[in-house]
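General statements about sequence and structure are easier to judge against a single worked case. In the encoding step, the backbone of a single protein was reduced to a row of integers, each denoting a local shape. The record that follows shows the chain in one-letter code together with its fold in token form.
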Amino acid sequence: MRKEDFKKVRKILQKTQKEMAALLGLSKKTVESYEQGLRNIPGNIGRIVYFLLFKLNMDKFAKVELCWKKKKCPPKIRKNCVAWLAKEGFFCWFITGKVCALEKLPGESRSDSCFECTFFRENLKKVW
């Protein structure tokens, strides 16, 4: 997660730095450091921040197609995908551990981050 995105989500959630810190179990100084770019935002914190953003805006995702259908994932990838096994095709980026990033899907470039996935990026646009 980029510092700009962290700050943008905090503002969308209408939280002060102090409130965001309390929500995430961090110090206010840590949140300040993330937003100033003095510290990298750990992946687990980024996922929690995006999860809050998506979860609090679920009304905007009523007709979202499941990730494996949208991305046309073949059985070889689905059988190793935690999201598919759990039948959680919307918050896949939150729980998969980047399984999709390990395999190149048709029409996709490989990425080391679920946050670069076309499925995630398309849905993120709905709450920006």
DSSP finds ten helices and no strands in the chain. The CA atoms of residues 101 and 111 lie 5 Å apart. The chain has two domains: 3-56, 67-124.
